[in-house]
Amino acid sequence: MGEIREVDIEKYIRIGEFSKKVGLAISTVKKYEDMGIIIPHHVSKQSGHRYYTERQAEDYNRENQIVYKRGGKYCV
């Protein structure tokens, strides 16, 4: 995937906003990235900024609710 054009950046959220939406510390989001649990939609080659979509936050929250309702925990 190529670089995100400036016009397209408005479609994405950066790691700080993403972490707030999913209720995780930024360090935990990065740890989950290393483990393959949460993968940024795009990482800028120039700045290293991680970009996520609203859909990724919604999906993570939905999956987390399912695990919580079943009384389970993510094994990390």
From TrEMBL:
<dbReference type="GO" id="GO:0006355">
    <property type="term" value="P:regulation of DNA-templated transcription"/>
</dbReference>
<protein>
    <submittedName>
        <fullName>MerR family regulatory protein</fullName>
    </submittedName>
</protein>
<dbReference type="InterPro" id="IPR009061">
    <property type="entry name" value="DNA-bd_dom_put_sf"/>
</dbReference>
<feature type="domain" description="HTH merR-type">
    <location>
        <begin position="14"/>
        <end position="52"/>
    </location>
</feature>
<dbReference type="InterPro" id="IPR000551">
    <property type="entry name" value="MerR-type_HTH_dom"/>
</dbReference>
<dbReference type="GO" id="GO:0003677">
    <property type="term" value="F:DNA binding"/>
</dbReference>
<dbReference type="Pfam" id="PF00376">
    <property type="entry name" value="MerR"/>
</dbReference>
